[in-house]
Each structure stands twice: as structure tokens, then as C-alpha cells.
């Protein structure tokens, strides 16, 4: 009987060890302590990161948002009943991934939710590019001054409250005063201008979001637009995440050297969703029950809007946040926060809206702090007089309430002001080219329409535009291309206005 020698035994063991492959895998897990209202408190997960995705049973996912000494607060994504699939004692796993969203050209023309999943019934979004929803804003060295206009197609905005590419311009006003209409008009006006648009609806009725999508389709704007829907039916966690997702989609294009416009409709409801989450997470409430970091909520979002330096491709991301006020009060908490973050505001007034001035922009309270740098020269020439005429008219109308007798100079100022107000009225979804805007404003501020009645001024504009397109198309093209109004162009424009007035009065 042969015996195994020690060296043979050791060689066999070495061979077995060499061929042995371990299938061990370590996982960081935690246990659900409490769940409800799309919020879960978890014990464990000691090494989880803020913003990291965690996995619950039944393919439900959440995002770690609150890191406490003995527990982790997680917001749950998915449908309204997602948190009902989870119960106390369930095991939660780390994924090691920060919340990301699909980005790229595949999203153009699509309607998606806050996580980038399509909800338009047109199949999956095919892209291999993803981007973290939270991202640091470009630093000072990475930016350059705003020098290119973003034309809205709205006369009162482009002339007196110009917006530049890379700017953050707040649209603020009470409900039903036309805030969304200004944003949608601006998106429609970007057709053919190479600006990629993103509209994010936060806490809106589904019917309102459908109406916006149909309007954009009707005007051919969905070809270059992505709509992100976090409707009033969506969870507070989806409403909280939606604007950051929209910004991430826009940043992908901005860092590729393209121009992007993002409309946040609206950040009042975004703040309310965050307040709900914070109170459920038992964070200490502050003013109006908002948490202490409510300012940072919006500043870290809006600071991501920028005009990048040429070294980084020169792309831009323009932000149009919308804020809804109560009773015209712009001094309440959230409005003042966002006003201080943005580069100006377009203030819409209920009284103006109901008196028939639409868009109902209060020019006295509206301002653009940086957009004037990129404004066309021709518009700058005519808008100076425009602001002055409007300001003088408003003062005189207030003075007239005392029933004073007027001299001829004062009467002339009121006549001019009435016609300027009429010129600035504009129908919804009817954006105008820069050339046509400058022509009609030029006619108003230079007194060329003072001999027409207020009712005639309203009828004059559409006919005048048709007359220009038929008889002076080169004039409009020249103003459009150069952005300037030369002496020769001024004379030609004055002549065209005179010719059409003769034709208009004989009708």
C-alpha cells in the first residue's frame, strides 16, 4: 500500500487553490425603518452618498437625500403607489450610482418624466449618453460676458427688457396673467435660430401640459424642443427633481457649443414640493415653513445658466424661471429669493391684463440687468425713446385723475403714449421678426402714427407688415441682417410708412 508523500499533498493543494475562483460579493445594505408619502427612513447604509440611487424590493428605486447620524432619508421615485410596495423591515441596497438622466439629440421632440423616461407613447429613447442631474455651475473663468441676444419675438420684451443668451430672466406675476404664454412665444420664436429648447412643467395640470405640447407641435417647435413633465399627479420627489433633470439635458448641448433655452414653469410649485419633502424628512422649518436651504435650492439650479468662454466652445444656457405671486406681492419669500438670484425680471400685472394690455408687462417694475449688452443697435436706438414716452405717459395719466386742463405739449405726450401702448400690444403665439418690430416701434416713437386714432393704430400694424413684405422686402432683410438702422434705411422706412398711410386712410 503506497502512501502519499507530504510534497505531493502540498502540490495538490496548491493546484486546487490556483484553480479556485471566489464568487463572493460584498453589498452595503440597510433596513427600512419607516415608509410613507414617497419618503423612507433607512437604518444602515453608512457609506451611502448624497444623491445616490438605492434599490428597494420590487424594482423600486430612491435617492438618498438626508444623511443623519443613525439613519438615511430617501425619496422614492416611481408612481404614486410605489411606496406601498415597500414595508418596514425590507432590505435596501446601495447601487453606487448618482442619479443620472439620458441626454443627447434623441430627446428632441420627446415628452419625458423627471427621470428621462418617455411618456409620449413613441417608444424608448435610444442614447448611450447619460449625465448627473446635479452638477456644479461653471466658474467665473469658464464664462464670458453676455453679448448675443435671445430674440423672444415680443415687442415689449425685445425693445425694453432684452434677454441675452446665457442670461437668467425671471417671469413673475399672479396666476392667469400670461406668464407661460411669454415663455411659449419665446420657444416658438427660436425656430430656425439654432436654439435647443427645454420646457419643464412642475406641478401643472396634465391638461395644461398637453395643451402646451399641442401648441408647440402646431407651430413646428417640437422639432427642437424637449418637454419634461412633473405634473400635479406626480410625486413631490419627481417635482423636486424635474428642473435639475432639464438643466442636465441642456448642459449636454451647452458644453457641445450649442445655445439652449430652459423654461422652468414654475419654481413656486418646485419650492412647495421641496418644502413637503423637507417637512416629511423632519428638517427644521424656517420662514413660511420652508427649510433653511430653500435659497440654495434655486441658486444652485439657476447659476448653471451661463455663456461659456470660447475656449470651452462658446455654448450658452439661458434660463427663464417662472414664479407665481399672490395678489401681486413680489416681496414674499420665494419671489424675493429668485429675484435676487436672476439677472432681471419681467413683471406681469393683473390690472394691465384685464384692461386689455397684453402681454401685461409692467415696464416700470421690469428690468434686464445684462441683456442690453447684446441688443441690436437699431433696437437700442428706438427703445430709448420708447421707455421715455411710456414713462411720461404713465405719469400724465396719473396726473389727469385730478382733472387738470392740459396744454398742447402735454396733450401731444398723451397722444404719443396712447399709440405706443397700442403698438406694444401683441397677440398670443404671434412672435415678430426683429426687422418688423423695429419698423413699427420706429413709426410709433417718431410720431408718424399720431394722426391716426387709437382704433386705427390697432388695424394699421398687420396691413403695414404685409405692405412692407410686398413692396420693401429688402428693407426688412437689411435691418434683420445688420441689426442696425442706417440713415438711408430710416429715410426709406419713413417713405414706406407715408405711402402705406395714404393707402390705409383711403380704405
Q: What does the model show?
A:
This protein has helices at residues 6-19, 155-160, 179-188, 206-218, 236-254, 267-280, 294-302, 333-341, 350-354, 377-400, 408-424, 434-445, 454-471, 473-482, 487-505, and strands at residues 29-36, 39-44, 52-56, 60-67, 72-76, 91-98, 100-102, 111-112, 130-132, 170-173, 195-202, 225-230, 259-265, 306-307, 316-324, 344-348, 367-368. The chain has 507 residues and is of the alpha/beta class. α5 packs across α6, α10 packs across α11 (408-424) and α11 (408-424) crosses α13 (454-471). It is elongated and about 125 Å long. It starts with 5 loop residues before the first helix and ends with a helix.
At a glance:
The protein contains 15 helices and 17 strands. Strands 8, 10, 11, 12, 13, 14, 15, 16 and 17 form a nine-stranded mixed β-sheet that branches. Strands 1-2-5-4-3-6 form a six-stranded antiparallel β-barrel. A two-stranded antiparallel sheet has the order 7-9. The longest helix is centred in the C-terminal third of the chain and has 24 residues.
Amino acid at each position: 500500500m503506497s502512501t502519499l508523500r507530504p510534497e505531493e499533498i502540498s502540490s495538490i493543494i496548491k493546484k486546487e487553490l490556483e484553480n479556485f475562483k471566489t464568487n463572493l460579493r460584498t453589498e452595503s445594505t440597510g433596513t427600512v425603518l419607516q415608509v410613507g408619502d414617497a419618503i423612507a427612513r433607512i437604518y444602515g447604509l453608512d457609506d451611502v452618498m448624497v444623491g445616490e440611487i438605492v434599490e428597494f424590493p420590487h424594482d423600486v428605486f430612491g435617492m438618498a437625500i438626508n444623511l443623519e447620524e443613525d439613519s438615511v432619508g430617501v425619496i422614492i421615485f416611481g408612481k404614486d403607489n410605489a411606496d406601498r410596495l415597500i414595508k418596514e423591515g425590507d432590505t435596501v441596497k446601495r447601487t453606487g450610482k448618482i442619479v443620472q438622466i439620458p441626454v443627447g439629440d434623441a430627446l428632441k421632440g420627446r415628452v419625458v418624466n423627471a427621470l428621462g423616461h418617455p411618456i409620449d407613447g413613441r417608444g424608448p429613447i435610444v442614447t448611450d449618453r447619460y449625465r448627473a442631474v446635479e452638477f456644479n455651475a461653471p466658474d467665473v473663468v469658464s464664462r464670458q460676458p453676455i453679448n448675443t441676444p435671445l430674440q423672444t419675438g415680443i415687442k415689449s420684451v425685445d425693445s425694453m427688457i432684452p434677454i441675452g443668451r446665457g442670461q437668467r430672466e425671471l417671469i413673475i406675476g399672479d396666476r392667469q396673467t400670461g406668464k407661460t404664454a411669454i415663455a411659449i412665444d419665446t420657444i416658438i420664436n427660436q425656430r430656425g435660430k439654432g436654439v435647443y429648447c427645454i420646457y419643464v412643467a412642475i406641478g401643472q395640470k396634465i391638461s395644461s401640459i398637453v395643451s402646451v405640447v399641442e401648441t408647440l407641435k402646431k407651430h413646428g417647435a417640437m422639432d427642437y424642443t424637449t418637454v419634461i413633465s412633473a405634473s400635479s399627479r406626480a410625486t413631490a420627489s419627481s417635482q423636486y427633481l424635474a428642473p435639475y433633470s432639464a438643466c442636465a439635458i441642456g448642459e449636454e448641448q451647452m458644453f457641445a457649443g450649442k445655445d439652449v433655452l430652459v423654461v422652468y414653469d414654475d419654481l413656486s410649485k418646485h419650492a412647495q414640493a421641496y418644502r413637503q419633502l423637507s417637512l416629511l424628512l423632519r428638517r427644521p422649518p424656517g420662514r413660511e415653513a420652508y427649510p433653511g436651504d430653500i435659497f440654495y435650492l434655486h441658486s444652485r439650479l439657476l447659476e448653471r445658466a451661463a455663456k461659456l468662454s470660447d475656449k470651452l466652445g462658446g455654448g450658452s444656457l439661458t434660463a427663464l424661471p417662472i414664479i407665481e405671486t399672490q395678489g401681486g406681492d413680489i416681496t414674499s419669500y420665494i419671489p424675493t429669493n429668485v429675484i435676487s438670484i436672476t439677472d432681471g425680471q419681467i413683471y406681469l400685472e393683473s390690472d394691465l391684463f384685464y384692461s386689455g394690455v397684453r402681454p401685461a408687462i409692467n415696464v416700470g417694475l421690469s428690468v434686464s440687468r445684462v441683456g442690453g449688452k447684446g441688443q441690436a443697435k437699431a433696437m437700442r436706438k428706438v427703445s430709448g425713446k420708447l421707455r421715455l414716452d411710456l414713462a411720461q405717459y404713465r405719469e400724465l395719466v396719473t396726473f389727469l385723475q385730478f382733472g387738470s386742463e392740459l396744454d398742447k405739449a402735454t396733450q401731444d405726450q398723451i397722444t404719443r403714449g396712447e399709440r405706443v401702448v397700442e403698438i406694444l400690444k401683441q397677440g398670443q403665439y404671434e412672435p415678430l421678426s426683429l426687422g418688423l418690430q423695429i419698423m413699427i416701434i420706429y413709426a410709433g416713437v417718431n410720431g408718424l402714427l399720431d394722426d391716426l386714432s387709437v382704433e386705427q393704430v390697432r388695424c394699421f400694424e398687420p396691413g403695414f407688415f404685409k405692405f412692407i413684405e410686398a413692396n420693401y422686402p429688402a428693407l426688412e432683410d437689411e435691418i434683420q441682417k445688420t441689426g442696425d438702422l442706417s440713415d438711408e434705411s430710416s429715410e426709406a422706412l419713413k417713405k414706406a410708412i407715408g405711402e402705406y398711410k395714404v393707402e390705409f386712410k383711403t380704405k
